[in-house]
Sequence to fold (358 residues):
Amino acid sequence: MLLVRNNVVVSLGKPGQARTNANRLGFTLLTYNVLSEIYATADAYPYCASWALPWNYRRRNILRELVNYRADIMCLQEVQADHFENFLEPELAKYNYAGVHKCKTREFMGQYGKMDGCAILYRRDKFTVVPGGLLEVEFNTIARQRHSNDRAVLNRLLKDNVAQVLLLEMIAPHPATRRQVLVANTHINASPEFADVKLWQTQHLLLEIERMMTQHSGSTANIPVVAAGDFNSLPGSDPHTLLANGLVQPENGDPSGVLATLPLRHSLPLRSAMATVGAHANASAESHELQRMEPPYTNYTTSFVGTLDYIFYTVDRLSVGGLLQMVEDRQGQEHTALPSPLFSSDHVPLLSEFHFKR
Fold:
């Protein structure tokens, strides 16, 4: 069943039910923090049934979700290196996906693979990677390059977070329909006391996106962009404001001096897909501020309920054709909170269908 509100088609089926329009040239993209095994502990989630927390149980739920969504592009966070290599990559290859993984810039207790990172997977029958089209962003490396002379600033910025930027081209028989799209996937630092670091990482991700666009097309206006992931930032926060509005004045200034050299602006006409009018209860035509139109939550635990995950897109090149229905409150509360036997992450997936405008 589909409901059309304000010319936006919103899927109203079961969670995981997605829609594609074969008559429009476009693609579907999903972002999902899948909850890494190293963080899925009984101490962190005491309300979750003990048998539903181990990776061996959760991985089948997560794989089932991903396969059911049938997204053309998947942006995943908290993907352990060993889980990507030994499970997600080979299992999703059976459904015609290929992918790349970028681990955080540290090892967990010295064990190979036991550290999470980001992964982008794409349908091999729909996309190819443009030559030179993969950029792995290590925020620690950027910090060392730019702040090696200021030990205090550098120490504050060294948080091991990473991002991926991937330039994809649609497979098509005629060159005129071989559209490109640049996809960015990230997991921004989670610590609430490091709001300035979150903004610093978000700004540098945007700078890397702009740099890659310029390298491949000579401009920041020629390639559609989708930037997705777990930004660990609430609607209306500085990173969200920078992404949505193109510029920001930091709410609490810059007491540690980490933002002094940043432009705190970007040139991309980004809009949040989930803030599309009619997408959910918050996204109404009466809401005049974008931050009030984001979903009520994308992370649902007993200690925190709020929106941290986003799909931003360049509105001059793409339009939203459909969205995955949000998980209903009663489903999240059925087993107290997330994760649960039904939903195997503490985050919910977001999925948008995009159409090329030109």
User: Anything to note?
Assistant: The longest strand covers residues 127-138. The CA atoms of residues 67 and 95 lie 8 Å apart. The radius of gyration is 19 Å. The mean pLDDT is 90.
